[in-house]
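[Meeting: bench + compute handoff]

Bench side (C.D.) handed over the final construct sequence. Compute side (W.E.) agreed to return the predicted structure before the next meeting so the bench team could plan truncations. Sequence as handed over:
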Amino acid sequence: MLGSRDELETRVADAEERFADGEVPLPPHWGGFRLTPDAVEFWQHRDNRLHDRLRYRRGPDGGWVVERLAP
């Protein structure tokens, strides 16, 4: 547990210094997948089911296009 924001920033600076020469080593049992989404949808609850829904999708230039969806 962190005691303060200063403690967090000190730990980050220490880690940046320790691993400045390259990759941060991972435990050998760690694995996973790299996800590269073409679209992501976020929604925020609002009363009466009138939620805010936003979809971010990849545009032709590789950037994100934001679309507002119907509730």
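W.E. noted at the follow-up: Residues 21 and 50 are 50 Å apart (CA to CA). C.D. will use this when planning the next construct.
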